[in-house]
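User: Let's play a game. I give you a shape written as tokens, and you guess the letters that built it. Ready? Here's round one.
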């Protein structure tokens, strides 16, 4: 599998809404440099670093920088409204991206899966013509079975699942259930490790992020369950907890990224 990072590898360095920003928020150019320093080949630019908000010069510079560093870009967003998907399809073309990852919900729209299917069908011929794959990410709003059924109904080799290892915990679906249901349809993998701990009063649990390889996710098993012969990207994502300050959190986030990439390499990701 092709190892990569995402803008969700560094959520605190980029900035989290509702919390103080870092002294120097990470920009796209910084993310690309981090990928180069980590010696990974793929960068997935997702919804916490929205590409449509960059001007044409910034997009051109980022494209040239990625090409100069030998990085493959994957595009990420939220929402499946036809106009929005076409806007991001155009961005994918600009970056020679072969994958556009999205979620069915956005801040502006929370369609039913039936509505999402109608919208995707409107634009799917353009994805097929351009050879760009739409990866629908699992998360707590829809069950994995319902998401898999949607992908199968669309009957296109240009639609698959961007499989996230933790998002579906919010729908009471564990990683083994997620993988069993969605791995056959996966076109991209988000490796996000986690821990589940009892709260101090022993009445309840807290789900939090963990460095890849240090949490509860059985990563060697996960990689072994992915479709054989599929050269998809394996993207490290992270949920670092907030520390005593934003700067301390950002520093921990970087430590986790270095540790996580090293661990994933030891598991066979390249």
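Assistant: Ready! My guess for every position:
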């Amino acid at each position: 599998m092709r190892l990569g990072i995402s803008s969700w590898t560094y959520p605190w360095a980029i900035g989290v809404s509702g919390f103080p920003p870092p002294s120097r928020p990470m920009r796209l150019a910084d993310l690309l440099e981090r990928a180069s320093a980590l010696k990974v080949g793929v960068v997935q630019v997702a919804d916490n670093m929205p590409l449509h908000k960059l001007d044409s010069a910034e997009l051109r510079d980022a494209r040239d920088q990625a090409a100069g560093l030998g990085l493959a870009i994957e595009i990420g967003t939220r929402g499946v409204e036809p106009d929005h998907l076409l806007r991001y399809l155009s961005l994918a073309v600009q970056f020679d991206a072969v994958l556009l990852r999205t979620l069915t919900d956005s801040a502006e729209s929370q369609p039913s899966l039936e509505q999402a299917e109608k919208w995707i069908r409107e634009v799917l011929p353009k994805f097929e013509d351009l050879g760009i794959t739409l990866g629908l990410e699992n998360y707590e709003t829809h069950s994995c079975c319902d998401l898999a059924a949607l992908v199968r109904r669309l009957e296109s080799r240009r639609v698959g699942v961007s499989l996230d290892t933790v998002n579906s915990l919010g729908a009471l679906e564990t990683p083994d259930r997620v993988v069993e249901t969605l791995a056959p349809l996966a076109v991209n993998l988000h490796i996000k490790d986690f821990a589940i701990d009892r709260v101090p009063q022993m009445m309840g649990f807290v789900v939090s992020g963990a460095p890849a390889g240090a949490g509860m996710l059985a990563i060697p098993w996960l990689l072994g369950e992915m479709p054989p012969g599929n050269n998809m990207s394996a993207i490290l994502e992270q949920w670092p907890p907030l520390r005593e300050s934003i700067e301390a959190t950002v520093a921990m986030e970087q430590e986790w990224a270095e540790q996580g990439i090293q661990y994933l390499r030891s598991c066979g990701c390249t």
